[in-house]
Amino acid sequence: MAFDFDLFVIGAGSGGVRAARFAAGFGARVAVAESRYLGGTCVNVGCVPKKLLVYGAHYSEDFEQAHGFGWTAGKPSFDWATLIANKNREIERLNGIYRSLLVNSGVTLLEGHARIVDPHTVEINGQRHSAGHILVATGGWPQVPEIPGKEHAITSNEAFFLKALPRRVLVVGGGYIAVEFASIFNGMGAQTTQVYRGPLFLRGFDQGVREHLRDELGKKGIDLRFNTEVTRIDKQADGSLAASLKDGSVIETDCVFYATGRRPMLDNLGLENTGVKFKQDGFIDVDDEYRTAEPSILAIGDVIGRVPLTPVALAEGMAVARRLFRPEEYRKVDYKLIPTAVFSLPNIGTVGMTTEEAREAGYEIKLFESRFRPMKLTLTESQEKTLMKLIVDAQTDRVLGVHMVGPDAGEIVQGIAVALKAGATKQVFDDTIGIHPTAAEEFVTLRTPVAQ
């Protein structure tokens, strides 16, 4: 049977665009359908605008610290509207780049809501298109729990487009999005409270990292409340909000921001017309090569619920394109040793095992750790401390995990991730000459294990 396209991609986010571009480059006939915005969550309401807001939030500390280096300036003021307008302009530029990448690579771009009619047919804007393979890459969507007053809450989707910076903000959640936005709102000058139902945020991260960030955010004035959750949100006569907590307390605020999880965005996609199966948590079930139970339909990225990171979706998209249209270059995505960063203030950078994971896996480990004030802060009143940590297999000397909390942690750990991928031992770290004076050199000068 002759198809209109060899590959029809639903979703022009990071993974979908990567799969489409490279498949087209391999000679395939490719179409991409997108109903919202080019670039997906990351470019529009995720990593990119968030990082821009994190940069903006950090300036409040930079102004304060400048005095220690002899700079005197007038009292700084912040204009939220200017930041958001400039952010919007940058996102529009990136949207244009994504459009050019697709069109210039020979991909047919179809803008509208795509719905799968059968395993080889997609309908969009009233027209039907047949395809040998259909790739679902529609990403995730934030969700707010079903509580009274949930309509008064916002998520990251809306936060990037607020008309004004709220005077008081309640952040609900304990994942990386929650701690990042708590840092953003606090750095911009909002009175910020963060509520999390568990005993400590960032579940799954190294315990030492979690505790260190808790202490640092507390120093910065964020009101952290653990082991409780919001039970209802009421709008007051003056327009403010009252959030009732499970512990009986009530928080008066101007904005309730929820970051309590994301669901796969599969609304009205037509998957019920196929043999695609789902996992218990609602994500699409795929095999190691991203094939669903329906042979012609594949899925990657946030809809499969594996590792919800943009670079991972990019790698998955590349793997799909290669397996289908350039099999001699195909190789599976390696989910081990994926580095990641949390752009809280201070940042977190991490790669490899946590202390808890290493112990649970049965390793006998040595821990090397350092906590210090960064050199930049020694002439200031800031008491922020950086944490650096190495987890080493005592039997083989191989470095199992690297963790950092401090300025530019993501930038530093990215390079170290290469070393871990290559199997670096602690001896390799010790034999590497550091760059002085930098914070990064601490990773190659840690000599004495800490007591466990």
Write the layout of secondary structure elements.
Layout: E1 5-10, H1 14-25, E2 30-34, H2 40-45, H3 47-66, H4 80-104, E3 108-111, E4 114-118, E5 121-124, E6 127-136, E7 140-142, E8 153-154, H5 156-159, E9 168-172, H6 176-188, E10 191-196, H7 207-219, E11 223-226, E12 230-235, E13 241-245, E14 250-253, E15 255-258, E16 262-264, E17 297-299, H8 310-325, E18 340-342, E19 348-352, H9 355-360, E20 365-372, E21 386-393, E22 399-405, H10 409-421, H11 426-431
Helix pairs in contact: 1-8, 3-4, 3-6
Q: What can be said about this structure in brief?
A:
This protein is an alpha/beta fold and 452 residues long. It has eleven helices and 22 strands.
Polypeptide structure, described:
The protein is built from 11 helices and 22 strands. It is an alpha/beta fold and 452 residues long. The chain has 3 domains: 5-142 and 263-329, FAD/NAD(P)-binding domain (3-Layer(bba) Sandwich), CATH 3.50.50; 150-260, FAD/NAD(P)-binding domain (3-Layer(bba) Sandwich); 340-444, Enolase-like, domain 1, CATH 3.30.390.30. Strands 1, 2, 3, 4, 5, 6 and 17 form a 7-stranded mixed β-sheet that branches. Strands 8-15-9-10-11 form a 5-stranded parallel β-sheet. Strands 18-19-22-21-20 form a 5-stranded antiparallel β-sheet, sandwiched between helices. Helix 1 runs parallel beside helix 8 (310-325), helix 3 packs antiparallel against helix 4 (80-104) and helix 3 (47-66) crosses helix 6. The chain is globular.
